[in-house]
Write a structure and sequence with these properties.
- By secondary structure, the chain is mainly alpha-helical.
- Helix content is 62%, strand content 6%.
- Strand 1 and strand 2 form a beta hairpin.
Length: 154
């Protein structure tokens, strides 16, 4: 997926869960970390060298899952904290990276159990109209779920 779609989808999901703009923003930053670690293909002198490394160890979910679990041990109330600590920020940044990996798995292969064994679907091509429709559908689904939960609580 394109970075903009990673950020929007991840931000909406996180905000729907937390109702906190700072935690949603933190997850949005986390949503670009797996690609950012690999560098920018436009500034790399050899695109195919970058491409061969893309979605490698930086997209291995175990790294971010362990980071989220470790930070969760030091944080109270991860969804609606009274005071946001560094542990909350690390947790939600890790959640953003995990959501990035799940989103990438919808349009290609990503590591799962090991950094070198890749799995995923090919529902659409990155940058295609279908990708943007997929992102819009996820955002609308989050909004609908949020609205249904709010209306059920009254």
């Amino acid at each position: 997926m394109k970075w903009v779609n990673h950020e929007i989808v991840t931000g909406v999901i996180s905000y729907a869960l937390t109702h906190d703009p700072l935690l949603a923003l933190t997850s949005m930053v986390g949503a670009i970390i797996p690609d950012r670690i690999e560098g920018n293909p436009r500034t790399t002198s050899h695109y195919w060298s970058w491409r061969s490394r893309h979605r490698g160890w930086s997209h291995w979910p175990l790294i971010y899952l362990l980071l989220a679990l470790l930070s969760a041990q030091n944080a109270s109330d991860l969804l609606h904290p009274a005071d946001i600590t560094m542990s909350h920020l690390i947790f939600w940044g890790s959640i953003g990276a995990l959501l990035h990996i799940v989103e990438d798995a919808a349009c290609g292969k990503v590591p799962l159990l090991t950094p070198w064994g890749k799995h995923g679907l090919k529902l659409f091509t990155t940058g295609s109209v279908t990708e943007y429709l997929f992102a819009i559908a996820l955002v609308l689904l989050c909004c609908l779920a949020h609205w249904l939960l709010l209306s059920a609580s009254f």
